[in-house]
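Bench notes, afternoon.
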Amino acid sequence: MSEGQKKLIQKLREKKAKAALGGGPRSIEKQHEGGRLSARERISRLVDPSSFQEMNMLAALGCFKERGLLERAQQYILEKVPARNKFVPITYMAANPHALPYMWEWYSSNLEALEKFHPMHYERVIAALVPLCGLGREEEIDSFFQGYMAKKEKAKDVIKLSLERLKINSRMRNS
């Protein structure tokens, strides 16, 4: 690590420490005298600090470049990531230009598992996947979801909205 980088990191740590003081030591002292906690103290009692790290790690699963790593990450998501968080790396993967070419096949081959997600999470996956991963295969995607909606009520509104976003993205790409 260069000296310049070390200085930048030190400045960042100093700014973070200053921000943690909120309105400064006197302000915090006044709040304590009034029997109140500072905003940061209240937040720290409500939030599990590891949850931010966990979300960042889940997001990172969607950011690989190499196909082999993407495939391993996809498998890991379905097998190991807690149900409440599975949608997070999938939505990041759907925005990853390196993953886009592989996402539709993965979605369609894992549809049964994906449909078991909480309805809101499944909708987030569709909303992230269809508008970008469907580019270049608009007719195939539209046909698939028209048939899907004829058979199932699941996520109809989100599917319609996502197909509309796909059409818009396609028009923008082709103009």
